[in-house]
Amino acid sequence: xxxxxxNCKHETFIGYLDRQTADIQKTIALLVxxxxxxxxxxEKIRANIFQIAKSVxxxxxxxxxxxxxxxxxxxxxxxxxxxxWKSALDKAKTHHDEVRVLQEQLKLDTMEEILKKxxxxxxxxx
Length: 126
Prior knowledge:
Shape: flat
Helix content: over 70%
């Protein structure tokens, strides 16, 4: 029973990441067609964050047999990545780099969205 629930949560999380990426890719295509390059560049950043989270999660699946260890790995890696973005955000603010501030904040907001969903998926069945 535990393996089935683990697999269901795994599929739900991967499915979420894939759907978000696909939806963003559609948005990017529309923005590019509408010659809105700046906005499409921001959406590309969001898509990359979802792919980063998927890659980290897939690594955790290959590396750790136990679900708790996988989640600890995922959370710690994503927190480490987010911390580097927080540092970059602070630096951009210091240098009054408005575009970079927006980019770094977008990364952090997207990561927060992913972590919220991750917790939602795993807390439901616990």
